[in-house]
# Entry
Amino acid sequence: MEFKIRIAEKKDVASILSLINGLAIYEKAPHEVICTEEDLLRDGFGENPFFHVFLAEDDSGKPLGFALYFFTWSTWKGRPTLYLEDLFVDPKFRGLGVGLELLRMVAKKAVQQQCQRMEWAVLDWNMMARDFYHNLGAFHKEGWLPYQLTGDALKKLAH
# Structure
């Protein structure tokens, strides 16, 4: 199957949201997605976007997968870090190289931006993804635990 990877545009927000929902279903958390097309337009396609998206599609323009990323900055390295928030390929199109090509495009962007590293998180039960990343030379950081502060706890701390 032929496919192409391109930078997503405003016109792609419905496809991106559909893929986000597909990812949430795969990760057994469809009820957690509250993102809207308006959110994607506002935060990803404005003057100063918070995130960027590579979109994989077949020859007819059907979306196959996406990679959503943003940049952070490392105080220790003194260089930017590319954070891959989501990498998802519709399960019907896995095994065709789509995920690898999406990841390759993100890595190229990291190198172009002189990032010292790429980072992302993987669910502990997702051995298919973990094996895929390990085969590329990626590793998970021992001794570091991810934390989140959300909802009322975040608001409480902010006051």
Summary: The CA atoms of residues 23 and 29 lie 9 Å apart. The chain has one domain: 3-158. The radius of gyration is 16 Å. Residues 98-112 form the longest helix (15 residues).
